[in-house]
TrEMBL record:
Cofactor: Mg(2+)
Protein name: Acetyl-coenzyme A synthetase
Domain AMP-binding enzyme C-terminal: 532-610
Species of provenance: Pistricoccus aurantiacus
One annotated GO biological process: acetyl-CoA biosynthetic process from acetate
Gene Ontology CC annotations of this record: cytosol
C-alpha cells in the first residue's frame, strides 16, 4: 500500500456550512432512504412537477427469475416540461446553456426561454415528420445546443431518443439505428473537433446503405460547418423545417415508466448493451444526484466535459442540470485544442464553478507537466468531479493541486450507463476525501461486496461489487432484450444487481473501485485488481499512463504484463524498465512484480476515453486473431503498433 493511499482530505467547515448536505444530514437521510425508501422517495419526487402525483412509490423485483422495476408507477409527467417550461416564470431570462465552440472564438448562450422556444419548434418539426409517442429517433450529432434540444424535443412529444456518439463509424451507427428502428435520424453536415471536421452526414449516408436501416424515412440535417455534403430525397435541412414552426407545442403526458431513452454502454468489456431508461425515476434520480453530489446552488456555472453521446452527457449535461434550473456549459471540442491548456482557459472565460471530467483527460494534461495550466487561473472553481475510470491517487492529487488550486473538493463518482446516475461518491459537504476512493453510497443505494460464490462479506474486505436493491435511476431493461438484461446483471448472483466491477471496502466503510472483475489478476493464487498496480506506476515521475493485464504464466498461473506511456520529458530505456519493476515491488510487494513492460505512445481506448484492457490482454497472451468487438475503439491504429511491438518473454 502506498503512503498516499492513506491521505485524507477532511471536509472544510466553510464548505460544509454552505452545502446542501452535511455529515449529519447524510447519515440521517441515508438511513431513511434505506430503511424506508417509500417515504424517502415520495418526498424526493416533489422535486418533479408531476401531472398526476404518484401514490405508488417503489415496486421492484431483483431476482434471476423475475426482474421487474417500477418507480412512481401511477404518476404521470413530462421530462421536457420539467427541464424547461417550469423554469420560465422565474428563470426565463437566465442562461440555460453556455455553448463553447471548438474554435475559441465561437461561443453563445441560450436562455431558458430561447431553449424552450427552439425545443418547441423542433418538437413540432418532428411531429410534421410523423413522429408520435413511442416512436424512436436516432441522434448522431456534434456537441451543439441542437443536440440537447433534440433530446428534449423527443421527450416533449413522448418519442424515445437514442443518441449515438458522433465519433462512431457508419457500421456502428447502422447497428444502433437498426436496433432502435428509428424513422428519423437527426445529424449535422459535419462536426468540428480539435480543428478537424468529422463528416457526420456522409457517415449517416453510408450507414443507411447497410442492412436493416431502410426503416429511416427522414434525415434532418443541422448546418454546422457548411461543408460539402451529398443530398438525398430523404434529407431535410433542419433550419428550413424548424424555423417555420410554432414556438408552442403541448407536452405529451407520459407515465412514469414510459421509456425516455435508449443508450448504449461504452463497449469496454464486449459488445455494447442498449440500455432502456424510463421517465419518472430517471429524472428524479438525475436531478437529486446533480444537486447534492455537485452541491449545485442557484447561479453556479457548471461544466461537464462529457459528450451527450454518453450517459454522463445525458444525466449531467442535459437532464439533471436542466431539471434543476442550472447553467450548463456545453463544449464542442477536445480539451487539448488549440493548446493543452484549453480546459483552464474555458473555466476562466465562462467563470466555471463546477468542473466534471474524466481521469483520462487529467492524465493527458499531467503528462505535459505542471506548467500546462499556466495560461489560466481557475479561481472561479469551487468543486471538481471525476468519472469513467478509477482515478489514480497521483492523478487525483494533481487535479486537486494544479487544476483546483488546492481548494476544491473532488467528487470521484462511480456509476454506469445502466445506473442512470451516480451511485457511489463523496458528498462534498459531508464526506472526507481519500484520493482514488469513491467513498460512500448515494441515498437509496445499498452496495454489497460478495465473494465468487455470492456470499455477502462483512466489514473491511475485498470482492465483487453488487447493489442489493433498486434505486429510481436504474435501467429497466436492455432494449428489446429483457433476457439479456437479466442474464447480464441478475444471474451471476441471484437477487443482486452485479456491477461487473471489483471493489475494496476499507476500515472506515469507504468503497474503492479496484477495476473490472474480468480484469482481476490471479498471481500465484493472490487476487489483485488492476487499479492498484496502475496507480503505483502512475505515481512514478516518468509515467503518464499505465495499463496492467494478466497473461498465462507457467509457474505463477498468471504473469503481469504492463503497457506504459511516458510523460513528455522521459524516454524509454532498459534502465527505466528495471526502475519501474523495482518501484512496484517496493510499493506493493514482490507479488506484484511486473514480468513484462511494453512501451507505447498510446493505449487503446473506448470512444468515451476508457482503457480497453480486453484488447491488451489478448495482445499480451499473443492471441491477436480474434480481438472481439473493436467498433467502439477510438484509436484503432494503436492496436497494430502494439501487436508489432509486443514483448516476448
Ligand atoms: P461496457 O459495459 O460496454 O463494457 P463500460 O462499462 O465502460 O462499457 P460505461 O457504462 O460507460 O460502460 O462505464 C461504466 C464503468 O466505468 C463502470 O462499471 C466502471 O468500471 C467504470 N467507472 C466509472 N466511473 C468510475 C469511477 N469513478 N471509478 C472507477 N471506475 C469507474
Ligand atoms: Mg459496463
Amino acid at each position: 500500500m502506498t503512503e498516499q493511499h492513506k491521505d485524507i482530505y477532511p471536509v472544510r467547515d466553510e464548505f460544509a456550512q454552505q452545502a446542501w448536505i452535511d455529515r449529519d444530514a447524510y447519515q440521517k437521510l441515508y438511513r431513511q432512504s434505506i430503511d424506508d425508501p417509500d417515504s424517502f422517495w415520495a418526498e424526493q419526487a416533489k422535486r418533479i412537477d408531476w401531472i398526476k402525483t404518484p401514490t405508488k412509490i417503489k415496486n421492484t423485483k431483483f431476482s434471476a427469475s423475475d426482474v421487474d422495476i417500477r418507480w412512481f408507477e401511477d404518476g404521470t409527467l413530462n421530462a421536457c416540461y420539467n427541464c424547461l417550461d417550469r423554469h420560465l416564470e422565474k428563470r426565463g431570462n437566465q442562461t440555460a446553456i453556455i455553448w463553447e465552440g471548438d474554435d475559441p472564438k465561437d461561443d453563445k448562450t441560450l436562455t431558458y426561454r430561447e431553449l424552450y422556444e427552439r425545443t418547441c419548434q423542433m418538437a413540432n418539426a418532428l411531429k410534421e415528420l410523423g413522429i408520435k409517442k413511442g416512436d424512436t429517433v436516432t441522434l448522431y450529432m456534434p456537441m451543439i445546443p441542437e443536440a440537447a434540444m433534440a433530446m428534449l424535443a423527443c421527450a416533449r412529444i413522448g418519442a424515445v431518443h437514442s443518441v449515438v456518439f458522433g465519433g462512431f463509424s457508419p457500421d456502428a451507427l447502422a447497428q444502433r439505428i437498426n436496433g432502435a428502428q428509428s424513422k428519423v435520424v437527426i445529424t449535422a453536415d459535419e462536426s468540428a473537433r480539435g480543428g478537424k471536421f468529422v463528416p457526420l452526414k456522409d457517415n449517416v449516408d453510408a450507414a443507411l446503405t447497410r442492412d436493416g436501416t431502410d426503416v429511416v424515412e427522414s434525415v434532418l440535417v443541422v448546418k454546422r460547418t457548411g461543408g460539402e455534403i451529398d443530398w438525398n430525397e430523404r434529407d431535410i435541412w433542419f433550419h428550413e423545417l424548424v424555423d417555420k414552426q410554432d414556438k408552442d407545442c403541448p407536452v405529451e403526458e407520459m407515465a412514469a415508466e414510459d421509456p425516455l431513452f435508449i443508450l448504449y454502454t461504452s463497449g469496454s468489456t464486449g459488445a455494447p448493451k442498449g440500455m432502456m431508461h424510463t421517465t419518472g425515476g430517471y429524472l428524479t434520480f438525475a436531478a437529486i444526484t446533480h444537486q447534492y453530489v455537485f452541491d449545485y446552488h442557484e447561479g453556479d456555472v457548471y461544466w461537464c466535459t462529457a459528450d451527450v453521446g454518453w450517459v454522463t452527457g445525458h444525466s449531467y449535461i442535459v437532464y439533471g442540470p436542466l431539471a434543476n434550473g442550472a447553467i450548463t456549459l456545453m463544449f464542442e471540442g477536445v480539451p487539448s485544442y488549440p493548446t493543452p491548456g484549453r480546459m483552464g482557459e474555458i473555466v476562466d472565460k465562462h467563470q466555471v464553478n463546477i468542473l466534471y471530467t474524466a481521469p483520462t483527460a487529467i492524465r493527458a494534461l499531467r503528462a505535459h507537466g505542471d506548467d500546462v495550466m499556466a495560461s489560466s487561473k481557475r479561481e472561479s472553481l469551487k468543486l471538481l468531479g471525476s468519472v469513467g475510470e478509477p482515478i489514480n491517487p497521483e492523478a487525483w492529487e494533481w487535479y486537486y493541486r494544479i487544476i483546483g488550486n488546492s481548494k476544491c473538493p473532488i467528487v470521484d463518482t462511480w456509476w454506469q450507463t445502466e445506473n442512470g446516475g451516480i451511485l457511489i461518491s463523496p458528498l462534498p459537504g459531508a464526506t472526507d476525501l481519500k484520493p482514488g476512493c469513491a467513498t460512500n453510497p448515494f441515498f437509496g443505494v445499498k452496495p454489497g461486496v460478495v465473494d465468487n460464490d455470492g456470499n455477502l462479506l462483512e466489514g473491511a474486505t475485498e470482492g465483487n461489487l453488487v447493489i442489493l436493491d433498486a434505486w429510481p435511476g436504474i435501467a429497466r431493461s436492455i432494449w428489446n432484450d429483457h433476457e439479456r438484461f437479466i442474464q447480464t446483471y441478475f444471474s451471476t448472483y441471484d437477487g443482486m444487481y452485479f456491477t461487473g466491477d471489483g471493489c475494496r471496502r476499507d476500515e472506515d466503510g469507504d468503497y474503492w473501485i479496484t477495476g473490472r472483475v474480468d480484469d482481476v489478476l490471479n498471481i500465484s493464487g493472490h487476487r489483485m485488481g488492476t487499479a492498484e498496480i496502475e496507480s503505483s506506476l502512475v505515481a512514478h515521475e516518468a509515467v503518464a499512463e499505465a495499463a496492467v493485464v494478466g497473461f498465462p504464466h507457467d509457474i505463477k498461473g498468471q504473469g503481469i504484463y504492463i503497457y506504459v506511456t511516458l510523460n513528455d520529458d522521459f524516454d524509454p530505456s532498459d534502465e527505466l524498465k528495471k526502475e519501474l519493476v523495482q518501484w512496484v515491488r517496493k510499493d506493493i510487494g514482490p507479488i506484484a512484480s511486473p514480468d513484462v513492460i511494453q512501451w507505447t505512445p498510446d493505449l487503446p481506448k473506448t470512444r468515451s476515453g476508457k482503457i480497453m484492457r480486453r484488447i491488451l490482454r489478448k495482445i499480451a497472451a499473443n492471441e491477436t486473431e480474434g480481438l472481439g468487438d473493436t467498433s467502439t475503439l477510438s484509436n484503432p491504429a494503436v492496436v497494430e503498433e502494439l501487436i508489432a511491438n509486443r514483448v516476448n518473454r
